[in-house]
Write a structure and sequence with these properties.
- It comes from Echinicola arenosa.
- InterPro entries: PKD-like (IPR032183).
- With 497 residues, the protein is an all-beta fold.
- The chain has a domain of 127 residues: Sandwich (Immunoglobulin-like), CATH 2.60.40.
- Helix content is 2%, strand content 47%.
- It is built from two helices and 36 strands.
- The strands form eleven sheets. The protein has a five-stranded mixed beta sheet, with no helix packed on it.
- Strand 19 and strand 20 form a beta hairpin.
- The longest helix has 6 residues.
- It is elongated and about 105 Å long.
- It starts with 5 loop residues before the first strand and ends with a strand.
């Protein structure tokens, strides 16, 4: 350590510096209380949001008491090359640095200052600091904690997943979700940007910064729209159409977005050409998330009929072509509909005709909408079925009735019980479609994701995600992995890289 001494001219105070220089005999040398910094490394690497600690050993040349109250402390970070007036990131005013590191990922210079309150002299030491994102990739989970929204994450760190409850607080985000939870959704809404969308009743829908999870007003959904919308405008569901395009449901209306063509959310598309009144859309839309030009299938709840959105720049709905197995003006209630990759890409719909249930399948491509299946389904208790999901390879339909999860074979028309959660609640089933499958994520698309909730546990940690391998020919599904520590799981999305 460099020793620091202060030299004091003890001649007559009014005499200026030149006089002191002429009479060197008027100088005395007075040693001050110096500080020697030990226990601080030259560099550190730490994860954003994790607890970080540096416990220095301070040695004082003239203060044997080592009384902490005699000193002031300051820890802070600054970007390398920063100008003197650039903002410093304050960390702590304690002698020992022991904090949750809510600092954006990056390279910093770290500083530790100690001021001697007796003399007013300040000493400092410097170290290098690299902050690594602990929220780089992983499962985003919107949780319900006692009726309030909380965003959780299972972050992939060094090939494992670490559950981070309340990830907005963990990363120091300024976004505070208010009210009941809504959806979380991830997709590349812009050729150069990635969107993590979060929704709550009081906040509405907004994106968060995809790397730091920071927030600013211009990330609100309203900034992706033309026209007048409230600040807390809320998306009930967003469907990725691929190629920076989407369909979005909000308060009984459907909106269309296509960045490449300059189409923003604006005029609702739940209108049919030539018809005066808009229709009430079902919340279920079958959308191919991989090809922007594919037709999307919607359902008109007022007239109980299937409709389509033709894309690429169509801002209204169209009537369906003639069917071969059933009339698209089907006159039934839609219970569920969704896109799946089975058989080259299909829409699967579950319909209710006064207590008799049917399954309809429609091959869905850019050039073709072809009916391939229409059969009744007769399963005890099916009127209570919910949380539907279709296996992309085998076409099995999964659903739960209460706490039991079933696999339905559309060929044999038999439902096989796969899981029984007993007193736990099943809140979500899904085969997750990835936009950018990688070696460590590819299995997710073919694994059944099951979210369950155990009300006997604290609300802050009652939710669990499990991933099951699905064998062919109705074999028993087997648990592959599980993640726990969430709230009651409402919505799930994967933050891809």
């Amino acid at each position: 350590m460099k020793k620091i001494l202060i030299y004091i001219c003890l001649g007559l105070l009014p005499i200026l510096l030149p006089a002191c220089m002429e009479d060197l005999g008027n100088y005395q040398y007075q040693e001050i209380n110096e500080i020697d910094f030990e226990g601080i490394d030259s560099s550190y690497v730490a994860y954003q949001g994790e607890q970080f600690k540096i416990e220095p050993n301070l040695a004082f040349t003239l203060d044997e008491s080592d009384n902490p109250e005699n000193y002031e402390y300051e820890w802070f970070l600054q970007k390398p090359g920063a100008l003197p007036n650039d903002k410093e990131k304050f960390l702590s005013d304690q002698r020992v640095l022991d904090i949750q590191l809510s600092v954006a990922p990056g390279i910093y210079n770290g500083y530790y200052r100690v001021r001697d309150m007796t003399t007013g002299v300040q000493f400092a030491t410097k170290f290098a600091m690299e902050v690594i994102s602990s929220v780089y990739e992983g499962w985003m989970v919107m949780s319900d904690v006692n009726g309030k929204a909380r965003l959780d994450m299972a972050s992939r760190i060094e090939e494992d997943y670490m559950v981070i409850p309340d990830v907005l607080n963990y990363t120091g985000s300024s976004l505070k979700l208010e009210g009941a939870p809504g959806m979380v959704f991830c997709y590349d809404y812009d050729p150069t940007l990635y969107g993590i969308y979060v929704t709550s009743e009081g906040t509405g829908t907004t994106k968060i910064d995809p790397d730091s999870f920071g927030w600013s007003e211009d990330l609100r959904l309203t900034y992706e729209a033309t026209g007048t919308f409230p600040e807390d405008w809320r998306a009930d569901q967003i469907y990725d159409r691929g190629g920076n395009s989407s369909l979005m449901l909000s308060e009984g209306k459907v909106y269309y977005y296509f960045r490449t063509y300059g189409i923003a959310y604006g005029v609702p598309i739940n209108m049919v050409s030539g018809e005066a009144a808009p229709y009430t859309p079902s919340p279920f839309i079958s959308v191919n998330p991989f090809f922007v030009a594919d037709q999307s299938i919607l359902f008109d709840e007022d007239n109980k009929r299937f409709l389509r959105h033709m894309g690429v720049n169509k801002e209204e709905s169209d009537l369906m072509p003639n069917g071969t197995l059933f009339d698209y003006n089907i006159g039934m209630d839609l219970v569920y509909m969704g896109y799946n990759e089975y058989n080259g890409g299909e829409a699967l719909a579950v319909l209710n005709d006064n207590g008799q249930y049917y399954i309809a399948r429609i091959a869905q491509t850019f050039t073709t909408l072809q009916q391939v299946y229409f059969e009744a389904i007769n399963v005890d208790g099916f009127d209570q079925a919910e949380n539907f999901a279709v296996h992309p390879d085998f076409g099995f339909l999964f659903f739960n009735i209460g706490s039991k999860v079933y696999e339905y074979d559309l060929s044999t028309k038999v439902a096989y019980e796969m899981l029984d959660y007993g007193s736990k609640e099943v809140t979500h089933l899904e085969f997750y479609n990835l936009a950018f499958p990688r070696a460590h994520t590819a299995d997710f698309e073919k694994q059944l994701m099951v979210a369950s909730n155990d009300s006997s546990l604290p609300a802050e940690s009652s939710g669990k995600l499990e991933f099951y391998n699905v064998p062919p020919v109705n074999g028993q599904i087997t648990l592959d992995s599980e993640l726990e520590g969430f709230g009651k799981i409402v919505s799930v999305a994967y933050r891809e890289r």
